[in-house]
Amino acid sequence: MKRFINTCAAVLFVLALAGLAHASGDAGEHGLPWGNYLLRVVNFAIFVGIIWYLAGKKIASFFGGRRNQIKKDLDDLEVRQNEAAKRLKDVEQSIANLDAERKALLDEARAQGEALKAAIIEKAKKDAEQIKAQARMSSENESKAAVDALRAQMADLIVEAATKIVSEKLSAQDHERLVDEYLTKVVLN
Predict the structure, then answer these.
(1) Average pLDDT in the 147-154 region?
(2) What confidence tens digit (pLDDT) does each residue in 8-54 have?
(3) Cα gap 44→50, rounded to integer Å
């Protein structure tokens, strides 16, 4: 029934357009050949009816499917638009937070730099103290060695001087007697 109504509407539409075309034009002296015109309209209506009968379902499904596809595309477009708006909002928020993040990173880097500086200074102080302690120990060891060398040299000089004095004042007999006494003490001990 619906198909018939659509066909009738199409025929009436074609007739109305033809009537409009005739009313706007000049028919001239001969007038309009209504019989020929009516055959053409009927021929056109039959042609449209055959096309509609053979391909009507495909045409309707094409345009219906096209309508559904357009509706689906519009819905997808709306979803993508919402997602894009959300991403834009996220990007804007991250841009707004960029200054705060940059400042936080700079502050953190500055704090790490200060901590590293303090650690380097502390290590340098400890190294300096160790070097000073080693220098003190070296100087003490060198001074002890110098004092010991000086004492040894003084002892050698004293022994030499004592030997000289003893050799001048001691006779050969006294010398032998002293040697024998010391040997006796060493052997008995």
Answers:
(1) 83
(2) 787 778 777 777 666 666 555 556 677 787 888 889 889 988 988 88
(3) 10
Q: Tokens representing 160?
A: 């030499």
Amino acid letter, residue 38: L
**60 Cβ contact list (under 8 Å, min separation 6):** none
pLDDT band, residue 99 (cuts 50/70/90): confident
3-state DSSP of 98-152: HHHHHHHHHHHHHHHHHHHHHHHHHHHHHHHHHHHHHHHHHHHHHHHHHHHHHHH
What is the phi-psi region of residue 149: left when phi exceeds 0, alpha when psi lies from -120 to 50, beta otherwise? alpha
Q: What are phi and psi of 26, to 5 degrees?
A: -100, 120
**Contact between 49 and 7 (Cβ < 8 Å):** yes
Structure tokens at 8: 């009738």
Name the average pLDDT for the chain: 82
- At 63-74, the pLDDT tens digits run 777 778 888 888
The values of phi and psi at residue 31, to 5°, are: 85, 180
Residue 16 has which token pair?
């109305």
The domain limits of the chain are 1-25+32-56
Q: Which two tokens stand for residue 131?
A: 């070097």
Count Cβ atoms within 10 A of the Cβ of residue 18 and give its class: 0-12 exposed, 13-18 middle, 19 or more buried: middle
CA–CA distance from 23 to each of 9, 19, 33 (Å)?
21, 6, 14
What letter would DSSP give residue 25? Answer: S
Structure tokens at 79: 């979803």
